[in-house]
Every structure is written in C-alpha cells, then in structure tokens.
Write a structure and sequence with these properties.
single chain; 5% helix; mainly beta; two-stranded antiparallel ribbon
Length: 156
C-alpha cells in the first residue's frame, strides 16, 4: 500500500479539471480526455487492472444516391431493475451519399483496491573470490581475459 493511502468510497465522483466531465474520484487518468488527474501509484495500478466488461463497435453506412441521413448517438444506462440512471446525447450529424460513421462503446470495470503485487525474493549474491593479479601488473576480467596497460607488456 502507498505511504499516503486514500480512502475513496466506491462510485464517488468528481469533475475532471481538463474536460469538465464527471469521472470516478479514484481514477488517475480521465477516460474522456486522457489527461492525468493525479500521480498516485495505487490509483494507477487499479486503472491498469481495469478490464473491459463490454465492447461494441458498429458502422452506419449511407447508400450512394439517396437523400442525406441525419443521426443522433444516444447512450442510456439502466440499473438491474430497468430504471434509467443516465441518458446522454453523445453526438449528432449528417451523412451524405456514400459516407459512413463508426461508433464504439466500451465499459471498463475496476477493482476497488489496487491489486497486490508479489515481489520476488531478492537474489542472494555471493562475492566472487578475488584471484591474484596476473603477472606483469595486468588486470583479470571475470571472463578470464587479462588486460595489461601499454608499456607493461612482456619484453620480447
């Protein structure tokens, strides 16, 4: 757990200072504008552990030679009793003959706490035995290579 643990109630919201969208208070990155909201390791780990519970993508194509189409993209959220919780008009526009528009919807779910990472046990390092310096004042590398400075090589 981080040194400064935040106690956040599940589902609590706040306004993104960048795009003014209502977002979950526990997020470290706004899902709308993708700006950082805070630099918190635990929140970032939670957001990394998010999974896509729903992903839908589709395309609306306008047949060539017909009158223009107008479209409205509306997202409606209902609870388990079928009661409407939120309804948002996302975009409107028009398609001319031969044009198309694609729409993608995804729902991410996050754990309420950051997943605990299991850190590997530190490796036990054993010091290597120091080998005696090679004759001639050179230096021996771990792979056995002997380095000798210029001027200290054996005379011929």
């Amino acid at each position: 757990m981080s040194a400064v643990a935040r106690s956040v109630m599940a589902g609590k919201t706040r306004v993104c200072p960048h795009c003014k969208a209502v977002v979950l208070e526990s997020l470290s990155v706004c899902p709308g504008c993708r700006h950082h909201l805070r630099f918190d390791v635990e929140a970032a780990q939670r957001q990394d552990a998010a999974t896509r519970a729903l992903e839908v993508e589709g395309q609306v194509c306008h047949p060539a030679g017909e009158e223009p189409y107008e479209y409205s993209i509306v997202v409606t959220v209902c609870n388990d009793k079928g009661q409407e919780i939120a309804r948002k008009l996302v975009a409107v526009g028009a398609l001319q003959g031969g044009e198309s528009c694609s729409v993608a919807l995804s729902v991410e779910v996050l754990p309420t706490r950051a997943p605990q990472k299991v850190e590997p046990a530190p490796a036990v390092l054993r010091p290597e035995r120091a080998s005696p310096p090679p004759a001639g004042g050179g230096r021996r590398l771990p792979d056995g290579t002997i380095l000798t400075p210029p001027g200290l090589q054996p005379k011929r």
